[in-house]
Amino acid sequence: MNKENTSIISFCSDYFFHYLLQNCNDVRTLIAQHLSDYPIEYTHIENSEEYPINQKLKKMILDVVFTDQLGHLYNVEMQNQTITRNVLIRFISYAAKLLEREIKRGGDYNVSSVKCLVIYTGTPIKNFEHFTHHLEFMDSDYCIKIDEGPICIEIIQTQRMEELNMEVGFKKQFEQFIYLFENEENHKKEQLTPLNKKVVKLYEDYLNSDQLLAYYQYERDQRVFNTAIHDAKNEGINEGIKKAKLENAKTLISNIYHIDDFEWLDNCTLEQLDKVITIVTQSYTYQELKKEILK
């Protein structure tokens, strides 16, 4: 069995965790209770489906957004790959989009914070020495946290569970649940809580589910797409890709600078267009941006 297929059927994979959140209200409620300071009566899934990233391929969202009885938003996912700066940007960007959605829905800025939980199974993040880390808005000079910051991201590192003193045993149901994902063998042990038994049973259901087939299809389509991109780069600049990036660059510049002077972009290389898309939000003036790209 190839590496991709092995990751899909792994208990600790983001694929199974996505399936679990979709199909187990008890797990969603447990997580919401962990992130909140009031009793959680029930949860309702807002989004866990697929969304298009271009016309030829669909990318699967492997995080799940749900609300509690008060309408507070929770964004939860498992992250198996190394958490890099780009991954952190994705976490923050998606949370910001959820916040923006709530502002538009309510018509003002009086909205509750978006609470995000990332269960991270990979090598611990540099300088993150603890089981749990909270990323919130704060003054780094005086270590003052802003009360009720708009976005709260909690990262749980399963490889730091030794901090909880496993010899004594986990006292909280949430810790017992997280322990299931500490390594690939833990779910095979005898489970002592009803919830953990339910999770293991759902894993057995997952291995025989239509959803598993959908994940296989997604991985196959992703590999085909990545291979096509690789081949296009080997053959030179693919005109279709360049055209799409050119349109993206023009749209971004138009939205940010309200300028339609785009002729200089037509002669940019694919690398230059990538740079436009990367730095266009970094507070450059229009002339500074143009100079930076063309230098």
Note the topology.
Layout: H1 3-9, H2 14-23, H3 25-35, E1 43-47, E2 50-52, E3 58-60, E4 63-68, E5 73-79, H4 85-106, E6 114-120, E7 132-135, E8 138-139, E9 144-145, E10 151-157, H5 173-179, H6 194-206, H7 210-234, H8 239-257, H9 270-279, H10 286-294
Parallel strand pairs: 5-6, 6-10
Antiparallel strand pairs: 1-4, 2-3, 4-5, 7-10, 8-9
Helicity range: 40-55%
The best one-word shape is: globular
Distance between the termini: 48 Å
**How many separate domains?**
2
Protein name: Putative transposase/invertase (TIGR01784 family)
Pfam families: PDDEXK_2
Describe the structure.
With 295 residues, the chain is of the alpha+beta class. The protein has two domains: 3-208, no CATH class; 225-294, no CATH class. The protein has ten helices and ten strands. The strands form three sheets. It has a six-stranded mixed sheet. The chain has a two-stranded antiparallel ribbon with strand order 2-3. Residues 49-60 have low confidence and may be disordered. It comes from Longibaculum muris. This is Putative transposase/invertase (TIGR01784 family).
Task: Offer a quick outline of the entry.
By secondary structure, this protein is of the alpha+beta class. The protein is built from ten helices and ten strands.
